[in-house]
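User: what does the whole thing look like in 3D?
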Amino acid sequence: MELYLQFAYGMKQIAIDLSKSWGGCSLILSPRDITPKQLCDWKSSFEKAQINCLFDPQCYYPKTNHKGLVQYDYWDDCFSTKLGSTLTFEDDLIKSISNYNDVVNSEEFIIPAAMLNYDDQWEQLWYKQCSKLIEATKKVNKGGKLILTLALPAELLLQKEDEIEKIIQIIGKYDVDGYYIVAHPPQAKYLVDVPLWLTNLIQLSAGLKLQGNKVIVGYGNHQLLCMTAAKVDAMATGTYLNVRRFTNKFLQEDSILRKSTWYYYPAALSEYKMGFLDAAFNNGVLNSMRPSNDMDRNYVDVLFSGAMPSSVRFSETMAFKHYLNCVRVQMKNLSKGSYADTISANEVMLETAMRCIENMEKKGVYAQARSFKDMVDVNKSALQRLEKNYGFQLSKEWNLI
Amino acid sequence: MLSDNDIRERLDVKVILKKFPKSGQKQVLLVEHNIYGKVVLKIVEGNAERVMREIQIITENKFINVPLLLEMKPYEINDNNGIYIFEEFIDGLTLRKIISLGKLSLPEAMGLMESILEVIVQMEEQRVVHRDIKPDNIIKCKNGEWHLIDFGIARGLDLSSLTYTEVKIGPHTPGYGAPELFQYSKRDIDSRADLFSLGVVLFEAVTGKHPFVKGDELDVNEIWYRAQTVIAENVIIDGDRDMQFMGLIQTFMQKHISRRPRNAAKAREWFLSVKKHIEEGDV
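Assistant: Here's the predicted 3D structure for the full assembly of 684 residues, as structure tokens:
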């Protein structure tokens, strides 16, 4: 599994720096956070940094009037996309999106989708919408891979597994190269403590992979490292929480609240505020929170310089770079040559995380809202269901998918 | 129905060796024919569209390990009309009989799976689904080869359906038919339905127990319910290294189509990988 960067407000330089440091990367651009002019202006900087750009049209809520989105010509000035207003709206929409894909030289065409409310009409509406948009895209596509957005409301992923299998079965008939899964978490939670949601997401991904599709999971975070077990091709994550999990903030102005800087302790899969790093310092356990050598790019040196963490200048930018770099390395470490080894690596990572969290708690060091403690069992449960229902298939197809 | 005398005189039959229980308009007999020798005779009264479909499927595709069709003609004798078919007689025991004598060993079961998978792969290439794979329709002949018989409810996926669209339950044998057959989502029916049935047959053959049917079911609804909901237990089979063979059987028996191998060719590929793993210890 590869790490894609999910573009967020103010992320240009971070993406460029990280890509240079990694020798290239893929970036999913967000019209919410970048103007059409910037798209043109920044193109060469991205190219120089070996950034492969994808363009997510973000049509999740087509009737929104988000100030960033309405600058794009597939949104009209009456605060809506042209969705549904003309007989050829899909063709018009896709043509316009295609132009923006051309601007950034994207090799993959993300076909948009709306985040439809889940009810008994959902499947029918979703199928109709996707079919039309795929057809419209085929008319303008110039040979790029077609990646269909699967915008999944939280309620759908909380249904019984039968519903998910039904979707896998229907999707198998679409003529596209891959899927960009955007899953709305229940109650917009950053870390999801509902096993069924994660179980359905990982099984959906596995089912799509086994059909030979490329699968990119968007708006993710370190909880989705378990997607390595479904041989997902890429998981995208970014800086602020609004790109580390999907929210409906496309509906209104999306202000970034900067309350605290968090330090990601990779072995614990948890993030800590400066105050608790101070507690770790005072209890003599701060150094055990340092990333292992393979993850250490000196972004966090200042925290481990011997001074009280809250007294040093650990910038938000460094915290983001550290987070993204660690997740990328963890992803690589989990992606093994066989299904069995990948499952084992995931299990070891979860066990280690639990031990680290508990050790820290014994020393009065708490991750509070960003503790992975309750998520360890959730992830284990999802992996168990994956093993039960898709383990055999994945083990046989591992090197072919 | 034709009398024994009519059969002997008008259909060139020397001796009627055995009569199988009549099913609907269909009568099956084992006979000694004057030219073909020992053969199976199927007589179907009236306008037997489904039987014509069976014949069409078998004659158009020469499947291996499937009885050959020797002769098929319409008849009109006295007031009776219909069609008769002479079919190759596979001299051996049904899998049902074999299971009643004892469980299959792992090598025997692997041989059975390989043979029937080959037939399913061939059928898939011709876009045919058997829909009635069960121990009664599998025969082990004296040279040890396994044969699949009775294409009575087979479906050519490119042929028009003989079942009315409004019908909610498609033809199958309860306990062996895949959920999509009795839920009758026609668009979902393909060779993966046969893989499901093969999984059930294999489970029964190696464990001696049916995975869903206990025998105390009060009616067919209960069997359908169990086939949809009961997950068969993982049983350890002697010699099944890392439970790979049981894993493959379980995968075939997945309730959801999307969790089975995506086609029969893929199922055969996985089978060969399992076989290699068991026989040579390769991963």
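In plain terms: The mean pLDDT of chain A is 92. Chain A has two domains: 2-243, 262-370.
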